[in-house]
DNA sequence: AGCACA
């Protein structure tokens, strides 16, 4: 009722407790890692890991109050903070005095796991990949996959709860190895709990469900569809279907990426016909259409893993799209058809949808006007310095050394020019929100 | 970076 000072006063006070509250833990933090940093201070009687919406908090209960006090005092005066996987962990007394492990549904062990695969859509992770990953722990009887609000999910049936628990303990919070996934998938964390099911009812062998105990189960027609677009070939090699349309997923998107930005980047390899930018699973993706597969292949090869902006910002992951001709209906900063003549563009701008999209545009596209007036310019296959008018960026023309600085990550392609070789500064675009106030926006971040 | 579970 009353928001008396008595309540708020105690919210952040540090009444000692055997239970410690740890926060800012890495998402993947395991119970072992938690125990590792706590056990020097005393006997741990209980833990609760991966707590909270971000799964980055934990509770640790010591046998004795003094042990908890010793840990808190140690890190209160230590120059080295507590760390897990390089992340500073903040430790306080919990406002409760014991951990209650309410083993709710999802935590009561059973032989069927409910696996949520975060950061992917259904097509990204094949049932064969799931089978491969979980078979490491024992015979997988059945798999059923489905898409819900929570995302792409799978029910995985093992022989017994022991096997299922082993798989859960090993894989919960972990990622499926990158080489088993399409290239545009950045990360896909597995969130695993126990299902209440004990025996899945699989009716067909299909791309959505499998019964490995019954190879004679009828094959659903939709399974054929699944074999038409295999993420992996029979030998386990990546088998991508080439296309003139590239699917780009943009990782670490600190800065705005508009069609203009993408057009400039991808035009270095040939005529860009159409671009569509959209959001998928909280990340940004774009489809870039070239006239032919060869151009797309060159662009894909050259740009994969590279960043639009220096410093690891807007890292590109490219794969071939299933599309061959994009249906671009709006003309705004998220979608553009460069093959259209001016009249069509003007007509499009009066279409519903184009206007609303324009209001969300905080970055006016400088190339837009020039191209609308001269459709031939839109067909310009490659580099044209005049297209950069008003742009502070120093762009590398195609044919020069790599215009795009290699990403600083370990996953970077090894066959690319090393950082600092040649004039490798990333192209920059105006109006970068992260630029320090008052600073010219021509300097790349990190300068 | 700021408290779970019913």
From TrEMBL:
Source species taxonomy: Eukaryota, Viridiplantae, Streptophyta, Embryophyta, Tracheophyta
Official protein name in the record: RRM domain-containing protein
Pfam families noted in UniProt: RRM_1, RRM_5, RRM_8
Function field: Plays a role in pre-mRNA splicing. Binds to the polypyrimidine tract of introns. May promote the binding of U2 snRNP to pre-mRNA.
Superkingdom: Eukaryota
GO cellular component, as recorded: nucleus; P-body
The organism of origin for this protein: Acorus calamus
GO terms, biological process: mRNA processing; regulation of alternative mRNA splicing, via spliceosome; regulation of translation; seed germination
InterPro entries reported for this sequence: Nucleotide-bd_a/b_plait_sf, PTBP1-like_RRM2, PTBPH1/PTBPH2_RRM1, PTBPH1/PTBPH2_RRM2, PTBPH1/PTBPH2_RRM3, RBD_domain_sf, RRM_dom
Key word Kinase present: no
Region spans: Disordered: 407-447
GO molecular function terms attached to this record: mRNA binding
Major subcellular location class: nucleus
Subcellular location per the Swiss-Prot or TrEMBL entry: Nucleus
Record key words, sorted: Acetylation, mRNA processing, Nucleus, Repeat, RNA-binding
Limits of the RRM domain: 18-96
């Amino acid at each position: 009722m009353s928001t008396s000072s008595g309540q708020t006063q105690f919210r952040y006070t540090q009444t000692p407790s055997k239970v410690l509250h740890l926060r800012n833990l890495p998402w993947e933090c395991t119970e072992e890692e938690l125990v590792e940093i706590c056990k020097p201070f005393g006997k741990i009687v209980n833990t609760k890991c991966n707590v909270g919406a971000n799964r980055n908090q934990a509770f640790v209960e010591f046998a004795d109050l003094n042990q908890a006090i010793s840990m808190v005092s140690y890190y209160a005066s230590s120059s080295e903070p507590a760390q897990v996987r390089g992340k500073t962990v903040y430790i306080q007394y919990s406002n409760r005095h014991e951990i209650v492990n309410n083993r709710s549904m999802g935590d009561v062990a059973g032989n069927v796991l409910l696996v949520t695969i975060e950061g992917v859509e259904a097509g990204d992770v094949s049932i064969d990949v799931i089978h491969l990953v979980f078979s490491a722990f024992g015979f997988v009887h059945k798999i059923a996959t489905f898409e819900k609000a929570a995302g792409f999910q799978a029910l995985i049936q093992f022989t017994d709860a022991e096997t299922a628990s082993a798989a859960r303990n090993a894989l919960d919070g972990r990622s499926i190895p990158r080489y088993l996934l399409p290239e545009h998938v950045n990360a896909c964390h597995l969130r695993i709990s126990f299902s209440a099911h004990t025996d899945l009812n699989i009716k067909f062998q299909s791309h959505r469900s499998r019964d490995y105990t019954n190879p004679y189960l009828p094959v659903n027609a939709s399974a054929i569809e699944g074999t038409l677009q295999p993420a992996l070939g029979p030998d386990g090699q990546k088998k991508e279907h080439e296309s003139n349309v590239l699917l780009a997923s943009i990782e670490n998107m600190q800065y705005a990426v508009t069609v203009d930005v993408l057009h400039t980047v991808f035009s270095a390899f040939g005529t860009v016909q159409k671009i569509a930018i959209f959001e998928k699973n909280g990340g940004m993706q774009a489809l870039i259409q070239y006239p032919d597969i060869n151009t797309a292949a060159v662009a894909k090869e050259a740009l994969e893993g590279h960043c639009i902006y220096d410093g690891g910002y807007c890292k590109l992951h490219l794969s071939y799209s299933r599309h061959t001709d994009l249906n671009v209906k709006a003309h705004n900063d998220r979608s553009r058809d460069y093959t259209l003549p001016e009249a069509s563009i003007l007509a499009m701008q009066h279409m519903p949808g184009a206007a609303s999209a324009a209001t969300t545009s905080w970055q006016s596209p400088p190339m837009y006007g020039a191209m609308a007036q001269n459709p031939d310019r839109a067909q310009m296959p490659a580099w044209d310095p005049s297209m950069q008018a008003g742009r502070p960026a120093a762009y590398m023309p195609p044919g020069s050394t790599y215009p795009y600085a290699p990403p600083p990550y370990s996953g970077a392609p090894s066959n690319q020019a090393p950082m600092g070789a040649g004039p490798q500064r990333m192209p920059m675009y105006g109006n970068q929100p992260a630029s320090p106030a008052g600073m010219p926006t021509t300097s790349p971040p990190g300068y």
